[in-house]
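Page 47, continued from p. 46.
Same chain as before, 152 aa.
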Amino acid sequence: MKKIIPLLIIMAIIFVAPADAKGNVEPVMPCSLVLDPVNNSEINEKGVALIYKVKLTPSFPRTSISVHAIHLPKPSNYGEYDNYEGFSFIENKISWRFKLYPTAEEDGPTWAGRIDDITANLENSRIEVCLSNSKSGKLGPVVLSNSINLCH
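Result:
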């Protein structure tokens, strides 16, 4: 009997574990994620993403991602850019872009925005803040980023 109990525990871990063989786990929602600067010299640039299920229509719930980014320089400091955008993607599958809007604050704006209509499973996705050019529609370099697998 004493030998069966450890065997049952091991089998339970293998068959009931929340992750698949690759370690992929969809985050438990709601969750938040700190967005760190990709350029380590920019110590003041930070952001946060809030990810949760939202039911805005009679259809099934969607996933909402909202981003709040602070202490970012003017987009034009990086070149031909005039805005920041939120960008989330699952590599080689799908991506979402959403505009971030600046607030009027004394020491520079807080950039914030959201997208509310994501239907995909977000495991292994990334959330980023990128520069953008509103005239050309082109997305520029990533400024802040993190993996949704670190969401908690």
